[in-house]
Capsular synthesis regulator component B (Iodobacter fluviatilis), 223 residues
Amino acid sequence: MATFGIDIIIADDHPAILMGVIASLGDAPSIRVQGCASNSTQIAQLLELHDCSVLVSDYSMPGGAYGDGSSMLSTLKRRYPKLGIVVMTSVNSSLVLRSLLSQGVRCIVSKSDDLSHLAPAIYAAYSGGSHFSTTVARVLNEINDETASFDRVPVLTDREVEVVRLFVGGMSVNEIAAQLHRSKQTISSQKNSAMRKLNTERDGDLYKYAVEVGLVTTGGLDK
């Protein structure tokens, strides 16, 4: 009789994190790691080689042909609609979490939380359920807090969030356009639209806002 198992791929551009994730799944024998990737190109290659049910992926993982973040997830969900996805991230920003939810990602684990959240998140992704680690759940609860004044919260589109994240992370408009496969004019328009909504006139103010909402840290782009 066949043994139940969930075949997964793990993606992160830090080898130490990959090792930690694999070690944390040692007590879950039904979860079988079929391969590890460090960018979106390698993810796509592994998905072509292996019939996997769940992808566990970092959110910010530059360098691949399909970008990272929202752009990468959109491509993967379009090409592999049955693939369960667990996102690991240090970007505990309400903007990013809202974007993930709008893309249908319902299993999110913050890297600031214990890795024990990964196994239940994988099981949830496999079964079409939801799982949020402690920090993610707290941020989402704050978003949904009925006492919050949403009128004061600028609402950026998913694409505007992605452009701002990449720009404050150090990429130029031309580089963002190349990674997201959009025109330079489109990227400039989305950046300017975000700045208008945020009432910022200078790039320095945009970076300051990104730090305040958790898109980046003072040390650079969060992983």
User: Anything to note?
Assistant: The mean pLDDT is 84. The first helix runs from residue 15 to 24. Residues 7 and 32 are 5 Å apart (CA to CA). Strands lie at 6-11, 31-37, 54-58, 84-89, 107-110, 131-132, 216-217, 220-221.
